[in-house]
Amino acid sequence: MKITDVKATTVTVPLEAPLRHANGCHWGRFVRTIVEVETDEGITGLGEMGGGGESAEAVFRAMKTYLVGRDPARIEEMRFLIANPTASLYNNRTQILAALEFACLDILGQNWGVPVSEILGGRLQERVPFASYLFFRYPHPKNGAGEVRTIEQLVAHARELKERYGFTSHKLKGGVFRPEYELECYRAIAAELNGDRFRFDPNAVWSTEQAIWFGQAIEDLRNDYLEDPVFGLAGMRRTREKVRMPLATNTVVVSFEQLAANVLETAVDVILLDTTFWGGIRQCVKAAGVCETFGLGVAVHSSGELGIQLATMLHLGAVIPNLSFAADAHYHHLVDDIIEGGKFNYENGAIKVPTAPGLGVKLNREKLNEYGELYKRLGSYPYDQDPLRPGWTPLVPNNRWGDPADSRTPEVPF
Ligand SMILES: [Mg+2]
After folding, report:
1. Among residues 190, 205, 179, 178, which one has the least CA distance to residue 154?
2. What is the 302 CA–ligand 1 centroid distance (Å)?
3. What domains sit in the chain, N to C, each tagged with a CATH number?
4. Furthest CA-CA distance within the chain
5. pLDDT in tens, 198-232
6. Which residue of 16, 316, 371, 406 is surrounded by the most CB atoms within 10 Å?
7. Residue 241 CA, ligand 1 centroid: distance in Å
8. Contact of 243 with 211, CB cutoff 8 Å
């Protein structure tokens, strides 16, 4: 079988409300680029990448000259073709490689009549459990709904997500307001959902001293882990010496070099594997093997996915023996998807791993066109800016916090 074409379409899919994070905001929607790799046997594989627009579409078009005529089964060779480690000093294509790897695995699975999880070693579980992903949210720019700013709103939101989807593990995305306020928020959720498990992620914007203070202040709770309280392996290592709970990261261990450094001088206990950041599902499976060898924990990270990427996370979660935590997904904040059959369903806080050949998802062309048109109308948004704080530049460590008393609604094009 040979690859005959590579196509890319950028889409934007609405969220229930704008999601605030330490470095900015998702302005009420996600922008994703959907990749289609076509073959001479009529099988098309699907991939997905964050962000996009003309530049992402052009990058994937440029990959055609590398890939046309190649066998999609040569995935390990493709890693060097697209993202050779020294060539990557000039053109970092890790995320491009990931989207192409998803598509090639999808092609192979369809060709061989097996789900991707079987190519990766076989499913160890049929369902992957997810944590609720709690964000501080601005009100929806059109209808004013969905705000999460006060402690009361946050607790009600957590309760609603638990009732609607069945989550028993809860992640709060912080780093938006000063840590004292966010500590109150986190403890309030833990009190409301007593008996469940919790994790906190301020996206590495605290000083080491703040990280230690916060970590010690939550030691009595049922924490899965404290995620990226501070930026850098050294700061994580200093925090880990003083805080009695696992530390997790999706920022300072996202490559094998960094994983090796963390094994030699451990700073992080739990590695959050992201099928995009690591350059594909197979790279994540390999990294999980290293973690298994050295007794490190793993979980599945979410970088803001539609159904194609969610499928990669499900196949990954299904085949890792040392997955000891619920996975993360932004997915439940989305109002729609571009796959056939609509959004994946949660059952008791988990999502069923697709069993159809390949990734197990198909494009809904109508939805792809609809959200492709929406992208053309709205364009991209600055993920690392806050619509209500123009000119704001968060530092690391940060001290330029949002104001929990500020109840304005952002005027975001929609
Ligand atoms: Mg994180």
Report:
1. 190
2. 8
3. 3-117+366-378 (3.30.390.10), 119-359 (3.20.20.120)
4. 60
5. 999 999 999 999 999 999 999 999 999 999 999 99
6. 316
7. 20
8. yes
